[in-house]
Structure formats: structure tokens, C-alpha cells
Design brief:
Order of helices and strands: EEEEEEEEEEE
Number of strands: 11
Radius of gyration: 13 Å
Largest sheet: 7 strands, mixed
Number of helices: 0
Length: about 120
């Protein structure tokens, strides 16, 4: 099992930045890929970004490309999502996820954190 704990969410204004963290523990070698997803109010969960723990190769949803940066620190078993130029439409609960497929499909991820709320006011 892999345990994931997100942190770093909060209330910010449009144009501000936030950095989310995802601390992994347990059998971390069981998850080769870390992803970030979000669920806006009243909507379904959607893909944000993903990265391979070893390769470091990132992939982004078009809506966040150029504004968000996913990264990881293998020495700390921690992943990050740097979010810049935040918009009100970025308001959502953000989840980190672990899996073995470099994919944007949530059902391919086996492990999930509890989520952290990000609210962007206009």
C-alpha cells in the first residue's frame, strides 16, 4: 500500500500562486507515476498533470499547461504542483494519485490522497 497526503491548499486571489505537496509513504516503489487531479464544485474529477517518479517527464492538461508545474523529489518521496497565475476556474479539491500508468485517466491510478481545497477568488 501507498499512503498519500496532500497539503498546501488555501484561499487565494486570482493571479496568485500556490504550491501543493504530496507526501508518499509505505510501499512507494509500487507507484511509478504520480498524478494530480482536481474536482471543481458540482463537476467530475479531471486530470491536471502527471509525472514519472524516475523519468521526471511531465504531462499537463491543456487548461493548466504553462501555468502549473509538476515536479517530484525522490529523496523525500514528495511530489509538488506549483500553480501560478491562478484563475477562479481553478477552484477545486485537488488530489494526488499514485499508479503505474503514465495516463490522464483517474481509474488507472491505484492510490489517492484525501484532497486539499484550493479556492481562487476573483
Amino acid at each position: 500500500q501507498v499512503q498519500l497526503v496532500e497539503s498546501g491548499g488555501g484561499l487565494v486571489q486570482a493571479g496568485d500562486s500556490l504550491r501543493l505537496s504530496c507526501a508518499a509513504s509505505g510501499r512507494t516503489f509500487s507507484a511509478a507515476v504520480m498524478g494530480w487531479f482536481r474536482q471543481p464544485p458540482g463537476k467530475e474529477r479531471e486530470f491536471v498533470a502527471t509525472i514519472g517518479w524516475s523519468s521526471g517527464t511531465p504531462s499537463y492538461a491543456p487548461s493548466v499547461r504553462g501555468r502549473f508545474t509538476i515536479s517530484r523529489d525522490n529523496t523525500k518521496n514528495t511530489g509538488y504542483l506549483q500553480m501560478n497565475s491562478l484563475k477562479p476556474e481553478d477552484t477545486a479539491v485537488y488530489y494526488c494519485a499514485g499508479g503505474n500508468f503514465y495516463a490522464s485517466i483517474s481509474r488507472l491510478y491505484n492510490y489517492w490522497g484525501q484532497g486539499t481545497q484550493v479556492t481562487v477568488s476573483s
